[in-house]
Request: fold
Amino acid sequence: MSNAEKLRLGVNIDHVATVRNARGGAYPDPLRAARIAQEAGADGITAHLREDRRHISDADIEGLMEVLRVPLNFEMAATDEMQKIALRHKPHAVCIVPEKREERTTEGGLEVAREENKLAHFIAPLREAGSRVSIFIAADPRQIEAANRIGAEVIELHTGAYCDAHAEGRLEEAEVELTKLREMSTFAHSLGLEVHAGHGLTYDTVAPVATFPEVRELNIGHFLIGEAIFLGLEPAILKMRQLMDKARAATL
Reply:
């Protein structure tokens, strides 16, 4: 499989920091997790610096920028504080996500269509600084069109509804959501956007999404960190990598 055809895997290390912060100490170290992920074949590392710093810290971002050999995908909300941090570090990629203090995790896609003018002005300096800008959105044509209009280079489709329906045994609903993701991947690609996907993907749900030819990257975190408790982080990532590669190869 050529590099052009390879489906990239971004490993999100947020929840290594969640475990560390539960005790307020230095372990487990997210930077160590990032290095292991690199060696296991991750094509990038994703880290979400939240406003309340519930997991990844400012020091983690600084450390990641220093030690990573693969690209850093810096997830953040569209706030002045986060924009300043991103402009200071100039990561390879910046993914704009919605964020609410009371949510356990990022629960839905960004409402781009409603905030189009604001977001266009927000991402312009990030693009000028050399970071690729990605927008985390639902598989909705309105949001995809708006992301394209504001100048985003990449969209990341929220796969949570599909994964949740699958996990709860609502298989017909899962198939509907999967079809929506497939169609919106094709639509976004037709507009010239690079397509990524993520949120809630597991060993049981990754293969169908990996078959979408327009999807260039999957970002997976919580599941892999959970599996690492039982398998170890490197074997957990290697297994995901193998499932992705097998599914993609079957479509070529």
In short: The mean pLDDT is 93. The beta strands are 8-12, 44-48, 72-76, 93-96, 132-137, 154-158, 194-198, 215-220. DSSP finds eleven helices and eight strands in the chain.
